[in-house]
UniProtKB/TrEMBL annotation:
The keyword Flavoprotein does not apply. This is Polyamine ABC transporter substrate-binding protein. Pfam families: SBP_bac_8. Its main location: periplasm. Keywords: Periplasm, Signal, Transport. The keyword Magnesium does not apply. It is found in: Periplasm. It comes from cyanobacterium endosymbiont of Braarudosphaera bigelowii. Gene3D superfamilies: Periplasmic binding protein-like II (3.40.190.10).
Length: 385
């Protein structure tokens, strides 16, 4: 149940919605293309209060990260005047005339492709007062070379503003025992009762975790037991689907599911028969980051956009993001618990203890050969089913 504090913030949303909806694109001080639900609407009012300003925002939301990545590709094609003839069939643009946003949401796993395709540009951090307060693992996630590889001597290509995990969700009305770690998914009682996201780095990754290794393990051909573990897991799987993996769990056809925390957390409040856990041995981490779309003849980011990025790391904004977006702020563990809503601190899916977080892995770029090995192994496992 929401607390009074949460209820008051929800009521405030009704009053703030007008700040977003009435902006004219050409007149807005800051244009942002973002992942739907990744920014609380009341943050706009807080931004203006914080800077004593009257900034107008134009927020255009998309339902999936792939749509935002496609938007970057489209903008580039328009600038180069090489328009794909099939593009008008893509529905994300609607009927409005396309424009290039100042900022855009991108997942950290998309950064390498975006850099290699020259879709985004590096960001100068002259006006980021809170950048140095970010833990080093968040900084290192977005510092890369011009090939998109992690490189501490590279450029800053994005600003992490929220993050989440890969969770195990399961039905407590179907199981008489608690799932605690990845190895529980191999329990014979779950045969043909699991639904999974259809992602090789995730599934092979948590199988590697079961074996005491990292999600980013290289040369997986040198791990002889990996294939047999994956074949045994495959017998447990009822569905592979990255978009609809939770429906079988909700209907009771699957008794356990593996997926992303921002998908799973919302269903827990609506269904008391479902529980979710962060696996004890650690899990994968994902992050949504602000990136700057590549614009011809424009290299500097506006002062308003710089302020917005830095503002997302303020304690008040960190609290809002963690409370209302089914994800956590990267600043969450830097803050005193008194600076955060009780609902955040008491939620182990949002507020990870340091000992748990330290066991988790960001899914990092691999060499072309390692990527090929992961994909080939995944294809072999699924082809048998």
């Amino acid at each position: 149940m929401p607390t009074r504090r949460s209820f008051l913030k929800i009521i405030e949303l009704l009053a703030i919605g007008q700040l977003v909806s009435g902006c004219n694109k050409s007149d807005a001080d800051l244009t942002i293309s973002l992942l739907k639900g990744s920014v609380p609407p009341q943050s706009l009012k807080l931004f203006n209060q914080y800077f004593a300003s009257n900034t107008s925002f134009d927020f255009q939301s998309r339902g999936q990260l792939i749509e935002l990545f496609s938007l970057l590709e489209y903008w580039q094609s328009k600038q180069k005047k090489h328009i794909n003839n099939s593009w008008p069939k893509v529905s994300i643009l609607g009927s409005q005339k396309p424009y290039i946003s100042d900022l855009l949401t991108l997942g950290d796993s998309w950064l390498t492709q975006a850099i290699q395709k020259d879709l985004i540009q590096p960001i100068a951090i002259d006006n980021w007062h809170n950048w140095h307060k970010l833990p080093s693992y968040w900084q290192n996630l977005v510092i890369r070379d011009q090939s998109g590889n992690l490189n501490r001597d590279g450029f800053i290509w994005g600003a992490p503003y929220r993050w989440g995990t890969t969770l195990i969700a399961y039905r407590i009305d179907k199981l008489n025992w608690d799932i605690k770690d990845w190895d529980d998914l191999w329990n014979p009682k779950l045969q043909n009762r699991i639904s999974l996201i259809d992602q090789p780095r995730e599934v092979i990754g948590f199988t590697l975790k079961k074996l005491g290794k990292s999600y980013n393990t290289k040369n997986i051909r040198g791990i002889p037991q990996l294939k047999s573990e994956l074949r045994a897991l495959d017998k447990q799987i009822k569905y592979y689907n990255s978009q609809y993996y939770l429906q079988p769990l909700l209907m009771g056809e699957a008794w356990a599911s593996v997926g992303w925390s921002n998908d799973i957390i919302p269903i827990l409040a609506r269904n008391r028969n479902i529980k979710a856990i962060v696996p004890a041995s650690g899990t994968s981490l994902w992050s949504d980051v602000w990136v700057v779309p590549k614009k011809n003849n424009i290299s500097e980011l506006s002062d308003t956009a710089q302020k917005w990025i830095d503002f997302c790391w303020q304690p008040e904004m960190a609290d809002l993001i963690s409370l209302f977006t089914n994800a956590s702020s990267p600043m969450i563990n830097n803050l005193d618990t008194e600076q955060l809503s009780p609902e955040i601190v008491s939620n182990p899916l949002l507020y990870l203890q340091t000992k748990t977080f330290d066991k988790c892995d960001f899914i990092k770029p691999l060499s072309k050969q390692d990527q090929k090995d992961y994909i080939e192994l995944w294809s072999k496992i699924k082809s048998v089913k």
